[in-house]
Design goal:
- By secondary structure, this protein is mainly alpha-helical.
- It contains four helices and three strands.
- The protein has helices spanning 3-27, 49-67, 80-115, 154-189, and strands spanning 119-122, 127-130, 148-150.
- A three-stranded antiparallel beta sheet has the order 2-1-3, with no helix packed on it.
- The longest helix is centred in the middle third of the chain and has 36 residues, at 80-115.
Length: 200
């Protein structure tokens, strides 16, 4: 398969992943599936890992990858093969942007999963909003999730959505890294390493 066609396949794969990440980040603003005040939403949600990192920053590499098959950078002094090689080389930069965006989403998601959600904890004297699992291994102790009185089911809600963001971010980072290698090969070999397109 030609490097331009392969890049287009990667772009097609990145597109739905970005949409899923944006939707997950939006859903995190509704802890437990219900509207909440800004002070009742976990801090990591406001970092917009899914919207900015895996969403907005992923738009640029996605569009570039989708257009690489037909992009010859206006040729290179009339040499189409040279122009396509330059286009493949420039795609490495956008692949790097994609890796950075996905990496940001991965870090935010990992911190959120480790820290746990913001919720209302009620004891015998008072009820307060806090991060009850910040210094505990709550992932291996699901019975402790009942500490969160409100919002209902916020622990499983945040854990599920941030886990999806983490997984999608990892996949995005891998796809962008693969395009980095593909772009390098395309720059060295031309759009196709075999056939007439490989001729300079």
């Amino acid at each position: 398969m030609c490097s331009g066609s392969f890049a287009k396949c990667l772009g097609i794969g990145l597109l739905p992943l970005s949409v899923v990440c944006v939707l997950c980040n939006i859903l995190l603003f509704f802890p437990g599936g219900k509207p909440a005040d800004s002070g009742e939403i976990s801090q990591e949600v406001w970092y917009f890992g899914g919207i900015l990192g895996s969403g907005v920053m992923m738009i640029f590499p996605t569009l570039v990858f989708l257009g690489l098959k037909n992009n010859d950078c206006c040729g290179c002094c009339g040499n189409e093969s040279c122009g396509r090689r330059f286009a493949m080389l420039s795609s490495i930069l956008f692949a790097g942007v994609g890796v950075l965006g996905a990496g940001y989403s991965i870090v935010v998601s990992a911190v959120a999963i480790t820290k746990g959600p913001l919720c209302m904890v009620q004891n015998s004297t008072e009820a307060k909003w806090t991060y009850p699992f910040e210094n505990s291994n709550y992932l291996s102790e699901p019975d402790s999730w009942s500490l969160c009185a409100m919002p209902l089911n916020v622990v499983s809600w945040n854990l599920s959505l941030f886990s999806v963001l983490l997984a999608m971010g990892l996949i995005q980072a891998v796809l962008c890294a693969v395009q980095g290698v593909n772009g390098l090969l395309g720059a060295l070999c031309g759009d196709c390493c075999r056939g007439s397109d490989a001729a300079v």
